[in-house]
Amino acid sequence: MRQTIHGADLRRLIISAAASIEIHKQPINELNVFPVPDGDTGTNMSMTINAAVADLKKAEDPSLEKAAGIAASAMLRGARGNSGVILSLLFRGMSKAMKGHDECDGVLWAKALQEGVDAAYKAVMKPAEGTILTVARLSAAKAVQAAQENSYFEFVHGAAIEEAKEALANTVNQNPVLKKAGVVDAGGKGWLLALEAMMQALHGEDVVVPEGFVSEEPKEQADFSDFNEEDITFTYCTEFIVSRESDKDPEDLRGFLQELGDSLVLVEDDEIIKVHVHTNDPGIALQEALKYGSFVTVKIENMRLQHTEKVMSEQELQPQIAAPEKKFGVVTVCAGDGIASVFKDLGVDGIISGGQTMNPSTQDILTAVNKVPAEVVFVFPNNKNIIMAAEQVDPLTEKKVIVIPSKTVPQGITAMLSYDPEGSEESNVEAMTEALSSVETMQITYAARDADFDGYDIHQGDYMGIFGKSLFSTSRDINAVLRSLAEKVRDLEKEYVTIFYGEDITEKQAAKAADIFSDICPKADVNLISGGQPVYYYLISAE
User: Fold this and answer.
1) Residue 513 near residue 501, CB atoms below 8 Å
2) 531 vs 360, 481, 498, CA distance in Å?
3) In terms of Cα–Cα distance, which of 411, 409, 404, 352 is closest to 380?
4) Is there a contact between 310 and 222 (Cβ–Cβ < 8 Å)?
């Protein structure tokens, strides 16, 4: 029985966990109760943890702290969807517990698991029972209890696995929707698979992804652009954030940079070191900073010549942060050229392609935010499964990021109508947030599989009408679903209806949909727009 693990062991455990989630991602997806074709918990968890695999494989014989830090940093930036963000936070908390340690026994592992749970729970405003959080919390608590009995790593990890199995099985009883469907929680299943794959690696039976599986890995690249001229003694204004991945004292970095230049500002906490310094040799400053950890962001301004030079080679750095030219900017997530055009016409600065079946990562959102030449950037996720990933961006950039928690594209569009670029931050947040509740969202998609959900006997291929968060109607006839939604809009006496039709709908079919709403809701102003969105045949807003 293994008493301790070291950095190379932890690397193998995480890579094995990633392989297992990758292999089982589709079965995890299928545990999502609602049978729409965007049940992607497994995909999100797989893409999140696989974001760490490439970096871990590059690390030769990493220390325990280094391996944990690499994994946590990569997963945070690669996090996709709520399940991916929670998974990244579990590893982020674990990394925090391992700082300053060269080896991990059962006592430290139990502490790490508990730190991960604490980090994940802090990020969720209203934690619900019967989710990955429940499975992680109970298994961590069992690990802490087991560590008091036996300090061997393998003993404690085994106890965590056994408790995770019981906790996962019980999720079906804790969540009424899961109970009715007779399935366990998808995210909890992914976490159990990760723990089990770690144990397999510990026994020398590492899980390996078979040929035919392709993991998607986020990539970064340097992107330097022009800057404003400024008459100062030192040429380059150098700003960066570096994650703290070593035990080196940041005060040593402060002393080094004070000798190198002027206008130094250095702020640090347990996670990062943030630096602003004017110097004639930014390359030396960055090379020294690398001794403390990996870069989160880098910005270099040539304050004399209105251009920047590439100061480091063979380094994958965060894309340049655009210098602010205005107070506010906006980034939104959406899919479909037509919908993107609507957002652009409303004044959105950056569009992130994503949504159902294609949740952008925290890194994707960060990159888009950094390109906006504004001090404050409002982010519209337009999907409940993207909100948590967007909320992780603010501490990763020097810009102020405010997430307006839009859960649908119609909500995002309505909120943008309340946006005032000349207004105050507080008034904009209040107006845009309030606008979210003023619009009703309807969606029509298809059933990806047979299901008995919320009183509906659903068959694969059925059209499904969703009103708000609830399944509203199903039929083999899409016009029947449209009529049922139109009748609901009529009963609510809504005055404005906007129909965005998707990439699989012809103009003739879309015109028929508009006619249905106009006939049933004669008092409403009905507008038809080619949205071009995938997966959802129609996105409909009513106000």
Assistant:
1) yes
2) 19, 19, 11
3) 404
4) yes
- The tally of CA atoms less than 13 A away on the side-chain side of residue 258 is 8
Quote the tokens at residue 94. 């674990």
301 Rama sector, left if φ>0, alpha if ψ -120 to 50, beta otherwise: beta
Q: Are 49 and 207 in contact (CB under 8 A)?
A: no
State which H helix or E strand residue 236 sits in. strand 236-243
Q: Which residues in 407-482 belong to E strands, given as ranges?
A: 440-446, 451-453, 456-458, 463-467, 470-475
- Output the CA torsion sign for 58, 60, 66, 67: positive
Residue count of the chain, please give it: 543
What's the pLDDT score for residue 1?
Answer: 86
What is the sign, positive or negative, of the torsion defined by CA atoms of 466, 41, 77, 133? positive
Q: Which of 461, 468, 504, 507 is nearest to 489 (CA)?
A: 468
Instruction: Kindly state the tokens that stand for 483.
Output: 């009529």
DSSP letters for 354-395 = -BTTBPPBHHHHHHHHHTS-EEEEEEE--STTTHHHHHTSGG
Cα 371–chain centre separation: 18
pLDDT on residue 298: 80
Residue 281 has a pLDDT of 84
pLDDT tens digits, residue range 54-68? 899 988 889 999 999
Q: Is a pLDDT exceeding 50 seen at residue 310? A: no
* pLDDT (0 to 100) of residue 181: 73
Q: How far is CA 63 from CA 88, 93, 246, 429, 432, in A?
A: 20, 17, 10, 44, 47
Give the pairing of strands 374-380 and 400-403: parallel
181-208: pLDDT as tens digits: 788 999 999 999 999 999 999 999 999 9
Helix (H) or strand (E) holding 333: strand 326-334
Contact 228, 62 (CB under 8 A): no
Separation of first and last alpha carbons in the chain: 64
User: What six digits make up the tokens of 85?
Assistant: 């963000």
The answer to whether residue 232 scores a pLDDT higher than 50 is no
DSSP string, 109-132: HHHHHHHHHHHHHHH-SS--SSSH
The CA angle 194-200-202, to the nearest 5 degrees, is 105
Token pair 């899919």 is at which residue? 335
Is residue 4 a contact partner of residue 105, using CB atoms and an 8 Å limit? yes
Query: Under the phi-then-psi rule, with left for phi > 0, alpha for psi from -120 to 50, and beta for the rest, what region is 435?
Result: alpha
CA distance 136 to 168: 9
